Amino acid sequence: MAYQLQEINSNLREDPAAFISQCDERYHSRVVHAANTILERISQSPIVLLSGPSGSGKTTTALKVEEELERRGVECHAVALDNYFITRDPATAPRTPEGDFDLESPLCLDMALLDETFTKLSQGEEVIVPHFDFPNQRRDESRGRPLRLGKNEICIFEGIHALGPGIAGPHPEATKLYVSARSNIMEDGAVRFKGTWMRIVRRAVRDLNFRGYSIADTLSIWANVRRGEKLYISPYKETADVIIDSSLPYEVPVMKNYAGDFLAAVPRDNPRSAELRELAAAFDYFETLDPALVPKASLLREFIGGGSYHYK
């Protein structure tokens, strides 16, 4: 679907709180649909695989699905696939065509351990969920945690490669969800803001707020992130049992507060520099929305901070 620029700006001028509530409720209905599908398939597998490209809101969506399932009496556990990264060996690590470490490659993950984990959990056996120490780029075995699924329990594994053949392939019985900001914003038939742009803006603001990266740092790697999406993520989205659009019509007006930072941060030598400059200029079409109006339970809080969910 697509959103209309005139409708967004008009609603923000008339009653921004009501508009935000309406948008969040529309997204929540998609979460409810995902929960319904999981429950319909629970007898086939207690494993849920949730995938989506960078900036899609996978973590919040996983937590909201977990919340909805538990509201219905189903105990649920959310596990980030990032914990299954392999300790990097420079001699064998996957690399980009430019020779850099390819952090978007599924070969960074311990596929054998994931296969074993899904099988054991499905059989009611205990597993140890590993912990990956990102600052030191290694798996920390001492911080692994035990997990066993009882009857009527679900485990959601969330990560960009969750639907790839190395993970979902051996377990077709698992319920598969795909999440992404998929809706463009239009005006008189012209695209004013792409769903893809929403995701890079989300990631850049999150990296700035929580990961110590400047907007320029994030934009500089965007070309490789998009390359990885086309190779490893997008080809498998149609295998999902449910596709969730995580875009929110009010998010670009919120992110407009960072518009000046984006324009200044576009790297001239980036293969996507022309597109990124077009993105930065597109904020001018929108009204500005005060981030303080964004509810604490909003998916957007995953990126701007101040939310009610705890992100590990």
Key phrases:
312 residues; alpha/beta; 5-stranded parallel β-sheet; 3-stranded mixed β-sheet; 39% helix; globular
Structure in words:
It is a single chain. The chain has 312 residues and is an alpha/beta fold. 39% of the residues lie in helices and 15% in strands. The chain is built from ten helices and twelve strands. The protein has helices spanning 5-14, 16-40, 58-71, 111-122, 195-211, 215-233, 251-255, 259-265, 273-282, 301-304; strands at residues 2-4, 47-51, 75-80, 127-129, 132-133, 138-139, 145-147, 153-158, 175-180, 184-187, 190-193, 242-245. A five-stranded parallel β-sheet has the order 3-8-2-9-12. It has a three-stranded mixed β-sheet with strand order 1-10-11. A two-stranded antiparallel ribbon has the order 4-7. A hairpin with a 4-residue loop joins β5 and β6 (138-139). α5 (195-211) packs across α6 (215-233) and α6 (215-233) packs across α8. The two termini are 32 Å apart. The model has no long low-confidence stretch (mean pLDDT 92).
Number of beta-strand segments: 12
Bin the helical content.
Answer: 25-40%
How large, in whole angstroms, is the Cα Rg? Answer: 20 Å
Structural class: alpha/beta
- How would you sum up the major sheet? 5 strands, parallel
- What do the pLDDT scores average to? 92
SSE series? EHHEHEHEEEEEEEEHHEHHHH
Enumerate the spans where pLDDT stays under 50 for 5 or more consecutive residues.
none
The coarse overall form would be: globular
Q: What is the tally of helical segments?
A: 10
Strand order of the largest sheet: 3-8-2-9-12
Distance between the termini: 32 Å
Measured by DSSP, the beta-strand proportion falls in 15-25%
